[in-house]
Amino acid sequence: MITPASVTQRHLSRRTVLRGSGVALGLPMLDAMTPAFASQAQSKSAKRFVGISLSLGLHNPNLVPETAGRGYRPSPYLEGLEDIRDEFTVVSGSSHPGVTGGHTAEGSIFSACPNARGATSRNTVSLDQLMAKQLGHETRFPSLVLNTNTQSSPSYTENGSMIPAENNALRLFTRLFVNDSPEEQQRQAELIRRGRSVMDLVGDEAKALQQQLGAGDREKLDAWFSSVRDLEQRMVANEAWTHRPKPSVDLKAPASIPRDNEVAVKGIFLDIVQMALASDSTRFVTLHVTGNAVNGIEGVNTSYHNLSHHGLDEDKLRQLAIVEKATIDQWGDFLRKLKEQRLLDETIVVLTSNLGNASSHDTRNMPVLVAGGGFRHGGHLAFDQKNNYPLPNLYLSAIQRLGLEIDRFATSTSTMTGLEVA
Amino acid sequence: MIHPALPYRLSAHFRSRLMGRLVIVSLLIATVTNSSWGIESDASQGDSARGTAVDAAPAATQRSPLELPSSVSTYLGQHCVDCHTGDHSEADLDISQLDFDPDQPANFAKWQRILERVRDGEMPPDADARPPQAETDAMLASLTRPLLDADQIDIASKGRVRGRRLTRTEYENSVHDLLGIDLPLKNLLPEDSSAHGFETVADSQQLSHHLLAVYLDVADLALQEAFDRALHGDPVYERFFDPKELTTKVRANYRGPDYRDGKSISWPLVVPFFGRMYITAAPADGWYQVTLRDVHAINPNRDGVVWGTLRSGWCDANSPMLYMIGLVEATKTPRDLVYQAWIRKGDSLELRPNDAELRRPPQGAKGGNVSFVGRDLEKDGFSGIAHRGIEVKRIQTNAEASGICRLLFGDLAPESLVNPAGPELNGGSEVMTELVSQFAQRAFRRSVKSEELAPYLSIAEEVIAEGDSWIEALRSSYRAILCSPRFLTFIEPAGALDDFAIASRLSYALWNSMPDEPLLNLAAEAKLSQPDVLQEQFHRMLNDPRSKRFVNSFADQWLKLNQIDFTTPDTKLYRTFDTVLQESMLQETRAFVAELIHHDLSVTNLIDSDFAMVNERLARHYQLLDRRSTLKLVPGEGVQKVSLAPGHTAHRGGLLTQGAILKVTADGTSTSPIVRGVFVNERILGVHIPPPPPGVPAVEPDIRGATSIRDQLDKHRSNESCAACHKVIDPPGFALESFDPIGGWRTRYGIDGKGVAIDPSGQTPAGEAFDNLSQWKQIYAQRPEQLAIAFAEQFLTYATGAPIRFSDRETIKRMVEDTAESEFGIRSIMEASLLSPVFVNK
User: Fold this and answer.
1) Residues of A in contact with B691 (CB under 8 A)
2) Distance of CA A55 to the CA centre of its chain
3) Complex prediction ipTM
């Protein structure tokens, strides 16, 4: 019988394991540890994170409500979300300290890594990957890194390497929900079995080369060591999943993917993400929205990138508002579905962009909407537009909300002021 | 490094800097001499910096602290610091607080930038207030010396190129060469990011377990393909589809070609997928040779052709993606046209006229969508493409099964390898050693010592010990070899490259793949480091068909041709744009670059040339075929070299007026002199344009009151701090405003030229005025040395995998001077580059 005290004890001991040894991370959870997880579930902390990032920003005057606090009057973009206004918070006047460089700041959206005028040679770990590294081993996919168009992503590993995004919705669906053929399962199992000795060898070779090559190549070879170690852990975890059937879900594979309607593409991805969360296939997701084609949208005849450089031209702003409003509405639909399935309280959902003003490539005053996760929502946190509040504080709040004992993320100064647990 | 903020006084500042440094320097002082080129490493700094630091590169060598030469500090104090001090320093550069520590890369870059901006006359910004030139020259000289020293010491100990990995294109070619297979692998690997303009540059290459997992998986897939074919032979498929079959109605919604007089005819109908032929669906993923029999034009245009495209795809709204197989240039005379393409299982062929300037039959008539039913479109004067059938044949674009067998098993018969008893029958472990050794030497591109081979052999031995077959054992060993950093990266110790490393660098530079046997043999004989041998190999390799990979890959990255699909022109604004035009643009620019290389033509051709490489579609787009024109194109020849009549060179000639260049530097609906200006400066003129500094306030573009992009920019340029860079960036962009986003000539903006007039005039940074592009070209065509240096830098960055360093500049300048004899021929510049110390050192 487990007394409350011993639960705490077990809880801590698992933490110790998590923090202390990288190798233990990927191991299937031992039975003895199960109560620790049960206790975590009971503690009602959040357990999922979804970060959606827009490469072309959101037009702030249409997004940010005029008044702060609860009871703000909805801005034009938020009018369609009135029914769920208590499920999310609008944050204005915040950005990542030391992050500049317009489009090149994309790499820092979720890492908040100061990028020295877009010229940083190395990024730091992104929020989602930090979470996935600590908590992602319980699901088939520790994380999903997605992009509506290209393979670029704002998700970075601990050694600052970008994780290439899945950019094909059909392939994503297949990976998540369609079982591999027996031959392919066999090949994968075999590859994992044999792959481990290959990885041992690769690690040894990297070491030998480091002695041979010296200082100039050290940094690159270091990446080999950490990658080998990480992959070995993944292979251990994957071995168990190879033979388990994938979940069957109430969602059809996307039959066609429109080439001229970025908003629709995003919708297809979000539907799949929602199913991935519902089936507990993964708990950590980033979706980077980068498509440029919006000609298929009613009332829009100019490319998205071109619209974002509106130069205050009225017609362009009008068209841009159509595209951006549709994007926000879709985000709202995503929240509604999560709420319906009772997933929202345990899922932190962030919508943001590296650009606060895409027309001038300004990285200050990033657009930020945060929902779910058991925070008390319904308000507008209005920080200083001139002297921005550090957005990494929001990320630290999210990290701690997941129960991780981490007290600093990138340039955070504290958890986010005004964002309380409900 | 943190230092106390002092009120401005340079000397005091640098004293404090020195004091701060004592602590740092005390730990480790390593010396590097120019003669030894030795590796001096600081073993203590290995793992510690990972994962946290932004600027993580630790200094491997610590020298005695440097002091800023006093002439420099005096100069900066007198002429620069007024604007560059305190919290509101211009460009965020506070010179009063700037250390002089050029051993640190970030600090080095700042001092280099200061040097270059003063040298180029950009700073101080007010020309009237500048110090006498002699004073500036003296300052530059004393700043240059310590920077050169620091740079050379860094290169000697660590090299320019650090841990470069194969790009995915290089990976695919290498695996193809190793295994003899032709399975496309590139798209299974994540896209390469690029730095300094090229994917080959090591700085941009990152590795994570995600990529490692992909390497493992793709190696396995490639080996499965190779072993399958070696053991079971090549798939065979051959079919001829006659016009009757191709035009058989299989579904209600018929969009196939028309059938008339024993011919299959495609008309320029507007419906999507018109010209699809479901019967041609491929039986399996694979390479196919597609032959269109007796292709000929119906109602050809004035030049005697009708343009179309041959593409493959599912040809259905459910999966609208179509893959280009090739252009179809139908002529009056029937011809067989032959194509090679990778076609996915189930995908069909689609052949259609694809020229936006063709007159299209209106829909309707009796046939609904397919308006040829019940009408005689030929008689009505519409153009079409006819043929007498299609032959589809499965082919191998690389080795056949027997060749793959040899690459995998040497002389052994594969049947002898299917059981664990194999080794005993065939001489046992010696044979295994020999096979693995052969494979490893080719994959690693160098000789392999037995102790280096051992771990790969033991993988094979393990498999045999488990009772698996020799086949399995070899496959496991080969898989490990394909995942090894010795295969996936370039092994280049600091200092002069060894012969094998030169072989690899040369081969990946010119062939995008691993060295062939002659090259490896020369390396083994240690001959490749001899300049005459290297030179000979350079020409042999460039004359080999494989050099086409270089031309395409280099041109695609250098000139951003790989971004041709990035924007889709607004067809309401640019009605003459079509797929054939875009494909022709790519062919043109690649052919142009190849022409310069193969005939060693002068680098000034990049600015202006008296010839063009065009096909009929492009010639029409470029308005080279008007009534006065004497230009003669051979129908059906595709891209061909034509002389430009003097009247036309005003608009075309050179690289910059080619459609592909003009398209990738525009956004589909509008042009930007900035984007084009940056492109021309960085890629052609060799002028590096830094990103806008953080100190410059972001300008909210406001196009409401402006009448043209040019006025808009003038507003921006009225800000003094913006003007310093924009006077360099904008001029070529202004001159190129005479070309719209799809490379068409224009004199006014707006739909159908109804907007305001274009003003292509400007002034070079040196103050030379030009009225239009033609005059701009005349100015820069007179600067072959500058162009040659710029080209050499681009080529060397691509070919070595690292940007050109500060201290390489002098080497390159001298090297380029030697090519003056060939009038700075492109091939001569390439040759000199490959023989230079920049290429043959790490």
Assistant:
1) 101, 104, 117-119
2) 14
3) 0.80
